[in-house]
Write a structure and sequence with these properties.
about 180 residues
Length: about 180
């Protein structure tokens, strides 16, 4: 597993954001209900970075320093927690079935070799998975299309959700 300081990731993502430039993605991300997402990725050459906030049950997608998408997620439930850390996407499969649970995992993007992945699935708005990060199907399709092997995914418990309209939304860690 590749470990990187969450503070460093957040600083890099927020450094190029103009002061007061919180836009519609940031604003919409604060009130997403289960199975909802916002997506406004113009494409480009800047690398994608994905940040998963376990405490907020949200995923945020950045292209360079610009937030381009956000969604509600469902992470691991008690006893099957989603492990915090920084991971590269190791494997991608549009059609995949869990070898552990036998469950369908559409648009699977593997984060660990011991069973943690980002994929389409049931999204009740609270932690309910066996450790994977579930996102809405249409979001999973879009994300699958723009990521590549090695894309960085940071999973954290302490990513701070600052009010929309602040100079640096979602810059964690808090404290």
């Amino acid at each position: 597993m590749v470990r990187t300081s969450l503070f460093a990731v957040a600083l890099l993502l927020s450094a190029a954001s103009p002061a007061g430039a919180a836009g519609t993605i940031e604003e919409a991300a604060t009130s997403l209900s289960p199975n909802r997402f916002v997506w406004n990725d113009p494409g480009g050459v800047e690398p994608l970075t994905i940040v998963i906030s376990l405490s907020a049950q949200r995923a945020f997608v950045y292209r360079g320093a610009q937030m381009v998408a956000a969604t509600a997620i469902s992470s691991g439930r008690d006893g099957k927690v989603t492990p915090p850390g920084t991971y590269p996407i190791l494997q991608k499969a549009a059609v995949h079935r869990s070898t552990i649970y036998g469950a369908s995992m559409p648009y699977m993007q593997r984060l660990t070799w011991d069973g943690i992945a980002l994929h389409a699935g049931n999204n009740p708005g609270f932690p309910a998975s066996h450790g994977c990060i579930r996102v809405p199907v249409e979001f999973a399709k879009k994300l699958f299309a723009v990521t590549s092997l090695g894309t960085t995914v940071t999973v954290t418990n302490d990513f701070e959700d600052r009010a929309a309209g602040s100079a640096m939304p979602w810059v964690g860690p808090s404290g």
